[in-house]
Each structure stands twice: as C-alpha cells, then as structure tokens.
Amino acid sequence: MAKKPSTSKSIPKNNPVAKKKPVAKKKPVAKKKPVAKEKADTKVVKKSPNELEILKKSPYLKDSLKNIKDLNLSDLFERNLIKEKESDFEIVLSGQYEKAIELIMEADASNLYPILIGPPGIGKTTLCRYYAQIRSHIIGNSSFEWITFDESTKPAHLIGSFNPAITIQKGFSFDSFNPGPLIRAMLRGGVFLANEVNRATEYTQNSLLEPLEEKTVAIPHIGRIRATSGFFFIGSMNPSELVGTHRLGEALKDRFNVWIELNYPDKKTEMKIIEHNNPYYKIDESLLEKIYLLINRTRTHHQVQIPASLRSGIAMARLVGISQLKKEQPNPNVILREIAKHVLNGSIQPKPGVKPESIIKNIISQVVG
Ligand SMILES: Nc1ncnc2c1ncn2[C@@H]1O[C@H](COP(=O)(O)OP(=O)(O)OP(=O)(O)O)[C@@H](O)[C@H]1O
Ligand SMILES: [Mg+2]
C-alpha cells in the first residue's frame, strides 16, 4: 500500500489553492463569503491526494522517465527506435476478423488487391498491420508502409521528393531523391496500406492507377520503376456516405478486386477486444457487459448518425479499471454512469438538431439505471 500523503506535503508550493488565500484574507473575517470560499478550497485539497495516488499507482505511468531535462533527444531516439522483433503484437482473431485475415491472405496469394470497408474504429488499420506481421513471419519480407489520406495528400507524399541541397550538388538522381512510402514498398516488394483512400482527392486517387494496374510508377526526372515481386496493395475506407469522404473513382474502384466489409463485431468478440486492450485490470463480467451495451445502444439509436466505435468501449473499460485505484470506491454503477457520460459525449455524432446529452442520458438510464 502506498503511503497516504499528508495534506500539507501533497500540495505543491505553486498550488492555486495557496495563491488564493491572500485574496480571501482581504475580506473582513466576520463576513460569511470568505468562510464559504475557504470551505470550497478545503474540499479541493481533500480530493487531491486521491488523484495523486492514481497517478502514482497507474500501470500506464510506471515506466515514465525521471530527470527528463538531463536526457538528450538523440539518446531518446535510440532508446525508442522500434526493433523489428520487438514490434510483434497480438489481436483478437475471431468472428469477422478471422475471416478478413483469411481473405486478405488469399488476395495476396492470388496477386490481387483487397480493400477493407467499414465505419471508423472498427479495426481496419489494426487488421492490416497484423496481416503485414503474419506475412513477414511467413515469407520473410517485413516491408510495410502506409499513408493515411486526406484532402491535402498529394502524389508527391506517396512518391517522394528531391532534397533541394543535394539536387543542386548532384542533379536529379536517386541519390538526391527521398523516396515516399509507395516507392519504398514497390522497391522492397512489401505491403502498402492506403488508409482512408476515399478521403483523397480524385487527382491523388488517379496517381494510384498506374501502380495498381501496371505495378510501375514514374519518378519525375529520373525514370519509371517496376515493383519488385511481392508488392501488395491494401486499401481501407469508411463508407462513402460519411462526411469528408470523396467518391472512390470508378477507375480506382475497378482496380480493387476483393471487397471486405467490416461491421461492428458481435458481442463476444467486442467484449474480448475491450478486455484485450485493457491489460492491467480485470473487469467484472457484468460491468463489461454493461460497457458493451452502452456502446451497442448508440448503434441502434434512431437519433445517432455516427455511433460509438470500439475505441469508446476500450476507453470506458480503462477508466473503470483505473478507478479501482481510488481510495473511495463508490458503487460500480455510479462510476460507470459518470465515465460513460464523458466518453460518449464526444464519440457519438447525433443527427442534425439533436443534442448528444439527451441521447446519452437516455442510453445510460436504460443500461445502468
Ligand atoms: N481485432 C482486434 N483485436 C484487438 N484490438 C482491436 C481489434 N480491432 C480493433 N482493435 C482496437 O480498436 C481500436 C480501433 O482500431 P483501428 O484503429 O484499427 O480502427 P480503424 O477501423 O482503422 O479506425 P479509423 O477508421 O478511425 O481509422 C484500436 O485501439 C485497436 O487496437
Ligand atoms: Mg484506421
């Protein structure tokens, strides 16, 4: 058990509470107002050791660095550089995810290009990263490059650009060229993930036509390259009716051969995913089920345009887990009610004219009571 910090030690010298005292002193002691203010301040002070304890005991913060000012950034770079074998990770592979991995693998083995379609936060990127890892273990090629498209992505972000200083010295050559992720994946015969490909403008989408059809691409000034055998292109996108997406051009659409639709997972799979992403605390099964139900109700609610994703369930579970560190333990339903309110507020998009608060209140009272 961590020691209970005494109130006086636990308040930093520059604590705003301490700063406020002189203001209170200016008022005559006999008046009631300052006394009330003092009470409110005392309440804040009383709460803070509890908060400090959460920070001290949090497993997410246990490896945080001390004396950070003495460390230089290049040492930190070396320390944090991800080595290939370190980066292996597991995911939940049941239901639709198992099937999707199988389909991606079959497309790869048939020299075809798949595209994953699904709402935000369904696991599209996670699946592709996981597939690249499996592929690296099986065929030994660990090259994996990706880019997330938006309105401002230009073909040069995919292909690369010339370093002006080196180009002045050496002219246009491969030595003065910084290859972009598409060129790196093509040269290495690796996986290229075009994340959110329908957020790209038609101009940028069109720059993908040649690599997809011919497996070649032109690098301005220096020539056209061919992809090394094994080059594999995966697309991912949100359904096109979502705001901020463009239509996937017909020509590009036609070059994706395997369409893999992902939807919100079944209850068992989603609960497993929530647990998997909440490694430090075991959450009571009935509470976990309530978290799932809270998320699930946003997906069937008639006033919700974009419902809560897997990320919201994961966030709720983590907050419920960390609340176990608090000294005062209110009823788990009270904790969940509070947490759900704060997580769901920003993670659902109501239909026009509807306020999220009323939807959330309604869902919480249905599920938690
Ligand atoms: N099968 C899975 N196993 C474990 N965790 C998963 C799985 N699928 C998704 N997740 C978790 O869900 C979260 C969202 O996943 P991800 O970022 O892959 O979704 P996405 O569909 O790419 O979202 P977006 O459309 O917003 O880019 C991540 O925290 C991820 O770790
Ligand atoms: Mg993604």
Written account of the structure:
The protein has 369 residues and is of the alpha/beta class. It folds into 3 domains: 51 residues; 175 residues, P-loop containing nucleotide triphosphate hydrolases (Rossmann fold, 3-Layer(aba) Sandwich), CATH 3.40.50.300; 101 residues, Helicase, Ruva Protein, domain 3 (Orthogonal Bundle), CATH 1.10.8. Helices cover 50% and strands 12% of the residues. It has 17 helices and 11 strands. The strands form 4 sheets. Strands 2-5-8-1-9 form a 5-stranded parallel sheet, sandwiched between helices. α14 packs parallel to α16 and α15 runs antiparallel to α16. The protein starts with 6 loop residues before the first helix and ends with a helix. The N terminus is likely disordered.
Indicate the overall shape: globular
Strand order of the largest sheet: 2-5-8-1-9
- Stretches with pLDDT under 50, minimum 5 residues: 1-27
Helix and strand string, N-terminal first? HHHHHEHEHEHEHEHHEEEHEHHEHHEH
Task: Write a brief structural summary.
With about 375 residues, the chain is α/β, with parallel strands linked by helices. The chain folds into three domains: about 5-55; about 85-260, 3-Layer(aba) Sandwich (Rossmann fold), CATH 3.40.50; about 265-365, Magnesium chelatase subunit I, C-Terminal domain (Helicase, Ruva Protein, domain 3, Orthogonal Bundle), CATH 1.10.8.
Distinctive features:
369 residues; alpha/beta; Rossmann fold; Helicase, Ruva Protein, domain 3; 5-stranded parallel sheet; two-stranded antiparallel sheet; 17 helices; 11 strands; 50% helix; globular; binds adenosine-5'-triphosphate; binds magnesium ion
